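Quarterly update from the structural biology core.
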Amino acid sequence: MRPNKLTSVFISLAGVVTATLPLTLGVGVAHAATARFADVQVDVDCGGTACTNSSIADANTARKITVLSDGSIYALFYGDQGIRVAKSTNGGQSFSPSVQVNSANREAEITSSSNGTLFVSWGESSGTGPNSTTQYYVSRSLDKGATWSAPVNIGSRTGFGRATLHTATDGEYFYGIASNGKTLYRSSDNGATFSTTTVTSEQWAYSDVHVDPLNGYVNVVVDEPQVSYFVSTDRGATFGAEKRTEKDVYFSVGALTSSTTSKYLFVAGAAGAAPTANLERINLTTGAVDTFQVSDTQEGGMGGANTRSLSADQFGNVVSGNYDGTNLQFQYSTNNGATFSAAETVVTGASIANAAINTTNGDIMFLYEKNDRVYLTTYSGLLTGYAISLSLTSIDFTAPGETQDIILTNTSTTSQPITSIALSNTLFTFTTTCKGTLAAGAKCKISVTAGTTPGSATLTANLGGFVRAIPVTLGALASQRPPASGDVVITLGETVKTLSFGRLLTDKEFKKQYAVSLTPKTCTTNGSHFLALAPGVCKIRFVSRSSAGKPAMRATKPAITTTVSDTGAETGVTVTRVRTIRFEMWSSLSDARFSSKAVRRFKKAEGVWLVGHTASITGSTKENLKLGRERALMVRKILTDAGVKTGKIFHSSAGATQPLSKTDQARNRRVEIFLIPS
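Predicted structure, tokenized:
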């Protein structure tokens, strides 16, 4: 074992990006930077109160910024109000109020998957020195950062090292590795369950993990301070032998880029008060290592020269962030790191930042901390390859037969050529309106449709002289869902979250059987779909139909018991209760009307669920269920008369099982309207 030099740090602040570079590489030096959006405060709101003591320390020990394939930016910080994430949907011009992930005030990392899942990970340590123990936790969001799951303890490590967990994603796969580099924490079901893989028996100072989205290879990179790496060709199940670079990098940081013609890992760190530091470029195909130069970075943050950040994109652009002792700066290269621009100063009097590339539009994002506040400054027009922007930079299907559209927009002032578009295999199909040339400001569309077999492909498009490789995936979990029909699947038998909605039976299955709720107080069905109404025990029975399609009083299987809880698993999608319609006693008539704004909202939604209720002191159970159903059908007629499609509307009856009041029966005679998000 080599001596353990804990001063060396290695982590990537960039995700993995993909494309094919043009044959002629550009020069690495361009024009001076002018901010697109300058000094935009990220930590502006922490649950309705001002954020205090916000931090993103350190630069090269955890990623604090990520971008979904639709261009949404997520920035993570931590402070007195815990670990929090703020979202921007306008390229960093402004941020919404932050959402708490966990109450712990600890350094954390954020990463996102091509399927839209967000993950936040962190460690909690006890003890000191070689006897210290760190427990690692992961929380995920399935609704684009609106809510976060309870943290899952995925494992632990003992001994020296930072408490951060470095992570990477690839569709339904999640990977995390502790700083000692020995064990990979792995999930193949989008973070629902985890397993471990031994990477190496040696202990390292720091480690990181990168995934190549074009072939699924998992690369674990370690340093001590000599940089080595391990490669898994079976999605992290096993790893090959150590590959040594014979290069030393202190306080290192890395980024991985993958294309159809080349795959590089970039590594840089600190030189120790020298004017420049080495940037090592590892060719992952041949193992060759080239050495280039970037500005040196100095001590800052929580101690040590942990102030380097690094990011790479699909067109040979590389961005390096550094702290020169006074200023936070960045440089950029447009030729795979061979040469870099002069250092551009972003802010003075601060030492902690993350520099990253927004791979949807080519902006350089510079997230920094100053005076216990967190800010983002973005720069446009410095990097090459973004004359034609994409609405999606990857496609991860949620079900067989689903179609997703990529909108191409010519953001330049001149026409751009579109010379070819192709898929690498026949698992998927596509159609396109993008042909010939795309005029300045014009748009066109590529529509990709999933088959039924799980797998991956690469959609290559030669756009404006740059060939972009877009990963296309139908994961194993997604392939098991019912064919795409506008909703997602509920898994019974688990604890599900209140107001979860989803499909129980495919259209084919529904012709042979239907689902019945035995506990309408906690859950309801319309035969094929499920809605969790309130905390408690939910029992669903599946009943077979006769050969004529009519109900037959025979259960196809025993009732399945599911617990509904306010803190249950994020199964299906979460609906929102948007309105309640009142009724007169024993009446199913209503003159309720909806505003044009409300009707537009119903039309835009994936669906609308109507649950009819009755008073709790009159009528038999059968009579109340019938009346509740009639009330729901009345509201459905009002909606369809207003132009909402019948196929979008689900309805059921809870009868008298869910009274709102014991004394005011008028409140109980109602139909509740739930909106199913798209």
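The two ends are 53 Å apart (CA to CA).
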